[in-house]
User: Which sequence fits this backbone?
């Protein structure tokens, strides 16, 4: 008998917590399903954060991330956080409280960045455009001239509105007025064309669980030399966990002696490295083409089912996350419940500007394949048929607001 007396007694039967997640087809705005190759990488042995094997994987990741971001930036690394944490790190390391930035919001993700900035007492000028539309550069230049911000923040792929914001040429406009260009590329990187250096982007942020094809858990960030110089002038120290100067030492960005900052999950590093290696093996151009073909096949398929895309202009549609407008007589909660219960298919509901207006169907990374498109169209057709049946009508309830 052990000599210790516990304060909290065990309340469940031994073995009661044995649990296995069901294998569902995740066609949401993320996370997405991982390839067998990435899943296998998650089963590697654990290791310490300061061993040669870990450092080798980090070095590999940095080089592959430069390729995926299309950049030569030395400060290119991963944070142990979600994409949200990567965006917050960008603000914390590059903008002091009281300084002015412009956030051109295209939906909920831009709105959330406004919230992050205000928490840090940053002076935010928020711009808004209509759902399903993008920003005109002339309009943005007028706002930059008017407000003189230190940063313009844009969302490249806005998954709450289904748009792909054009960026080429915007960096030149920003730099003309001594303004940094920061871009949320969380849902676009690896799935649509993105050129960090060519487009003059100073801050690029992404994450593992979207088109990159790894599980959620790491954020990616890359900073231009201009942004690195800006970071040297910041007066307010960033939170410890977001300090990019210290994390740059961990990732050997500037050739300094490596330094421990916090413990990275070695399994996540293994999986992210493998996902990036898959992109390198496939080639970015081929990967972009695969996502484009997948999206276009889906668009054609839903037309045959008498549905339409939320974004009218195909040139502005995001390839990785498709915004689907249902027929007016179909209740989306009934449809989504039916598809998940019968087929183990998970489709995303609309959020932000598309709440109760559209569904978010994500086919990216490993799921950007013709067979996935065909299967989703098939189950959608069956789901609509069910919703219009007497049983479906009986289960039909008014859509609930989603926050």
Assistant:
């Amino acid at each position: 008998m052990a000599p210790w007396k516990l304060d909290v007694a065990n309340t469940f039967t031994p073995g009661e917590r044995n649990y296995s997640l069901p294998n569902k087809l995740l066609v949401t705005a993320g996370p997405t399903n991982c390839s067998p190759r990435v899943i296998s990488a998650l089963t590697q042995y654990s290791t310490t954060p300061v061993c040669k094997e870990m450092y080798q994987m980090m070095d590999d990741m940095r080089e592959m991330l430069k390729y995926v971001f299309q950049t030569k930036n030395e400060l290119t690394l991963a944070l142990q956080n979600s994409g949200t944490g990567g965006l917050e790190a960008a603000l914390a390391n590059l903008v002091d409280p009281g300084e002015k930035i412009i956030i051109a919001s295209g939906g909920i993700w831009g709105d959330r960045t406004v919230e992050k900035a205000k928490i840090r007492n940053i002076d935010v000028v928020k711009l808004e455009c209509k759902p399903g539309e993008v920003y005109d550069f002339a309009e943005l230049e007028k706002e930059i001239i008017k407000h003189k911000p230190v940063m313009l923040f844009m969302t490249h792929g806005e998954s709450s509105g289904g748009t792909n914001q054009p960026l080429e040429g915007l960096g030149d406009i920003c730099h003309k007025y001594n303004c940094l260009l920061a871009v949320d590329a969380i849902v676009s990187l690896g799935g649509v064309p993105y050129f960090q250096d060519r487009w003059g982007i100073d801050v690029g942020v992404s994450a593992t669980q979207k088109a990159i094809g790894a599980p959620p858990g790491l954020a990616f960030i890359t900073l231009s030399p201009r942004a690195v110089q800006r970071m040297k002038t910041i007066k307010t120290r960033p939170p410890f966990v977001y300090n990019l100067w210290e994390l740059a030492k961990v990732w050997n960005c500037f050739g300094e002696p490596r330094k421990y900052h916090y413990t990275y999950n070695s399994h996540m590093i293994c999986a992210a490295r493998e996902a990036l290696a898959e992109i390198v093996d496939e080639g970015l151009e081929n990967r972009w083409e695969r996502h484009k073909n997948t999206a276009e096949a889906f668009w054609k398929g839903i037309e045959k089912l008498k549905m339409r895309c939320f974004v009218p202009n195909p040139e502005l549609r995001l390839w990785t996350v498709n915004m689907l407008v249902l027929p007016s007589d179909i209740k989306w909660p009934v449809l989504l419940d039916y598809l998940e219960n019968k087929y183990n298919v998970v489709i995303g509901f609309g959020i932000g500007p598309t709440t109760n207006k559209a569904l978010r169907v994500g086919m990216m990374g490993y799921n950007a394949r013709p067979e996935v498109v065909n299967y989703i169209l098939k189950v959608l057709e069956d789901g609509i048929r069910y919703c219009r049946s007497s049983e479906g009508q009986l289960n039909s309830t008014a859509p609930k607001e989603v926050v």
